[in-house]
Amino acid sequence: MGEGTYVTKANPTGKSRSINLPFDVPLLLIVIVLLVFGLLMVYSASWDFSILMGEGPTYMFGRQVLWVLIGLVLAVIASLINYHHYQKILVPMWFGTLFLLLAVLVANEQRGAEVTRMLIGGSIQPSELAKAVIIIYLSFWLYRRQDTINDLQIALIPLGIILGVTAMLIMLQPDLSAAITVILLGVILLFLAGCDWKIILIIVILAILAGLPVMFIYPTGRARMNAYLVGLNNPLESSYHIQRSLEAVVKGGWFGVGLGQADTKFTGLPLAPTDSIFAVVAEETGILGGFFLVVMYSLLIWRGLVIAKNAPDQLGSLLAFGLTTWIGLEALMNIAVMVGLMPFTGNALPLISAGGSSMVVTLTAIGIIMNISKTKVDQNSSERSPRSAVVDLRRRDGRGSVSRHHRP
């Protein structure tokens, strides 16, 4: 399936012929399953939340359906645009994202104590957009600078400025988990582009040394880290949020209490339809339902990596791998938080949690991955770029696995 999806169809003569579909069908089916499952869980988890907002019981579900439809339209559009064309709008796209991040600080709309992350009444969360934009921007940046990727002045210092400015604006909200995610995605793309591992190790050490003090400067970050460390010793002393989440998981058992039958979402589970929706999934569908969700995300990551491996050039590989890794990290962090394995981060569960920014940006990213798959199918071997990904993005010796004799 790495070279396209084939469907066998019988013709009038009785002979069968293969139809080469111009997109990755397994990825499409996985996304559809996650979207349907997500809508079902948002419908179940959002009744009380909607009423507390002063709206009808199906208010949040209706909004989620709208966000899914908008996201699907943008995903279809993204799947039809050749990913190489994004080069024309890279700079405006990045500066536009920085403008939105600045606007968040100016607008100062509160989601919770000391947290300023959203615009237009909570409809837009620019930090979600920033994660996808930084992947697209850095993929092009690194692709064009492969020959100088290890040069400190030409590549690494400008790259550090791009990552640092974006992460700093996100951290000021404060959204520490999103800032860490941006830095982590940058390091991963740097590795895949062929940067020397010693330089990457230095960058990681510097990021840790700079990030840990900042984490403890903000009361929110300090409180979450302290609550996490206490909870490791005794889950009964975890933060209220994690205690209620673990309570939901325990109540669900292996098979769950049934769809719509969970009571934790009505008795104080914070942010049940958004950040904590995995706890509702675990209570209503049990450990097996939670495991099903983990399997679906694993399959989504697998398809994304297959598309990255078979992309027509390293740009496509970097984009597909970066976007897939981002979606996988978001899912991993959300689930890990809900079962007490990580400090609370506030990450949405991709394609499941209620919320417009996460849903629209994630579906658009999947549309870009689909286009990379489609471009791979449309181009024959004689048209493949000299920078074509051969087996993977890095060889065993740690250097890039693509030819470097050609510059775009």
Description:
- The protein has 13 helices and four strands.
- The protein has 408 residues and is mainly α.
- The chain has one domain.
- Strands 1-2 form a two-stranded antiparallel ribbon.
- Helix 4 runs antiparallel to helix 5 and helix 5 runs antiparallel to helix 6.
- The protein is globular and about 60 Å long.
What's the layout of helices and strands?
Blueprint (H helix, E strand, L loop, with lengths): L4 E6 L5 E6 L3 H21 L1 H6 L6 H22 L9 H18 L1 E4 L2 E4 L7 H19 L7 H20 L4 H17 L4 H21 L1 H15 L6 H13 L24 H33 L4 H25 L17 H23 L30
Antiparallel strand pairs: 1-2, 3-4
Helix pairs in contact: 1-3, 1-11, 3-13, 4-5, 4-6, 5-6, 5-7, 5-12, 5-13, 6-7, 7-8, 7-12, 10-11, 11-12, 12-13
Characteristics:
globular, 408 residues, 62% helix, disordered C terminus, mainly alpha, 4 strands, two-stranded antiparallel sheet
**Helix amount:** 55-70%
Amino-to-carboxy terminus distance: 29 Å
Largest sheet: 2 strands, antiparallel
Number of helices: 13
- The figure for the number of domains is 1
Number of strands: 4
Backbone shape: globular
- What is the H/E order? EEHHHHEEHHHHHHHHH
Overall pLDDT: 81
| Structural class by sheet pairing and helices | mainly alpha
Strand order of the largest sheet: 1-2
Q: Provide the gyration radius in Å.
A: 22 Å
Proportion in β-strands: under 5%
- Low-confidence segments: 377-392, 395-408
